[in-house]
Amino acid sequence: MAATVVTISSGKGGVGKTTTTANLAVALANGGLKVVCIDGDIGLRNLDVVLGLENRIVYDLVDVVEGRCRLRQAMIRDKRLPELYLIPAAQTRDKSAVTPSDMVRLVDELRGEFDFILIDSPAGIERGFRNAIAPADVVVVVTNPEVSAVRDADRIIGLVEAEEKGPARLVINRMNPGMVKRGDMMDAEDVLELLAIELIGVVPEDENVVVSTNRGQPVALDPKSRAGKAFTNIARRLRGEQVPFLDLDEKSDLFSKLSRMLRPGGD
Amino acid sequence: MTSWLDKLTGRKPASANQAKERLKLVLIHDRTDLSEQALNSMKNELLAVISRYIDIDPQAVRINVAQDGREQRLVADIPIRPNTPRRR
Ligand SMILES: Nc1ncnc2c1ncn2[C@@H]1O[C@H](COP(=O)(O)OP(=O)(O)OP(=O)(O)O)[C@@H](O)[C@H]1O
Ligand SMILES: [Mg+2]
């Protein structure tokens, strides 16, 4: 086995990197692959809570790097899925505790055993971001259809190219079809025209994301949620499958069309 | 861009288009590290040099940074004045 190493980054904070990492990990593992995800956000760890694994942490990434434990000891297995593991970030340290070459060494140790290694990058363009992209084969840039997130995504895409890790692939998260329809939100086409990179997914704004995060059960485990479906499709595209893009406009969704036909006057 | 409907109803243009147009300019400057002022002074110097060789109408000149995928290009459209005997 030779893993594909995917780093999820963004530039701007809070656009959905951790949510994307957790859901891609779950969707890939659900598809029968062996997956490990690494929380690269040292000092602000979150991937553990989003995955619902916060109570099982003993060792973290910095413990591994500083030799207090073996890599295997820091890997928490997610019992809901056959082969999903998390390496948590340290919470009481900062980004300078790890270097890009530490990350490359650590990831090289894992490559032989996994199909996918996902790395959740912190926001910004500093050390934490450099650490996260150093071992990457593929960089996924997450953005929202909104001016500052797109601008920062453009910076990151440029830096990823400069580091010879490009071309990055784009996830547009929190798309609101109603606002797009009113002309008050850029659609995927607008964002793509500006950023000019390959799109690998559009994820709708979905309350289920918040609910599932509250519960520590990533939304990709819920086959009925729209966001869960979108993340599952991104996972399939990462595996090289050709998957058509979801129609985010709920009104033209086949399911809601059918349910409206069955419930005349409803909706 | 304002749609005909917006013009009729006097409504403000949809904000998504404003976002896109503003971002286009912002990204050009972010990517090239070229400010509006720097671009203008470059234009003026270019025009001065070109005018030493050919007769041009400075008002008709268009020099802009255009986006081509993730690359920026400096695009110049400089009409030459017709039938002007070249000075030597
Ligand atoms: N598609 C979505 N629909 C609704 N809420 C979302 C969606 N994606 C993310 N969120 C919410 O947005 C918030 C930020 O998400 P997340 O923590 O994944 O961002 P981040 O990019 O990792 O942030 P940071 O830069 O702080 O690490 C969370 O509360 C999350 O639940
Ligand atoms: Mg995060």
TrEMBL record, chain A:
GO terms for biological process: division septum assembly; negative regulation of cell division. Residues 6-219 form the CobQ/CobB/MinD/ParA nucleotide binding domain. ATPase required for the correct placement of the division site. Cell division inhibitors MinC and MinD act in concert to form an inhibitor capable of blocking formation of the polar Z ring septums. Rapidly oscillates between the poles of the cell to destabilize FtsZ filaments that have formed before they mature into polar Z rings. GO terms for molecular function: ATP binding; ATP hydrolysis activity. ATP binds at residues 12-19. Keywords: ATP-binding, Cell cycle, Cell division, Nucleotide-binding, Septation. This is Septum site-determining protein MinD. The keyword Signal does not apply. Belongs to the ParA family. MinD subfamily. InterPro entries: CobQ/CobB/MinD/ParA_Nub-bd_dom, MinD, MinD_FleN, P-loop_NTPase, ParA/MinD_ATPase. NCBIfam families: minD_bact. Pfam families: CbiA. It comes from the Bacteria. GO terms for cellular component: cytoplasmic side of plasma membrane; cytosol.
From TrEMBL, chain B:
This is Cell division topological specificity factor. Belongs to the MinE family. Prevents the cell division inhibition by proteins MinC and MinD at internal division sites while permitting inhibition at polar sites. This ensures cell division at the proper site by restricting the formation of a division septum at the midpoint of the long axis of the cell. The gene is minE. Pfam families: MinE (PF03776). Keywords: Cell cycle, Cell division. GO terms for biological process: cell division; regulation of division septum assembly. It comes from the Bacteria. It comes from Levilinea saccharolytica.
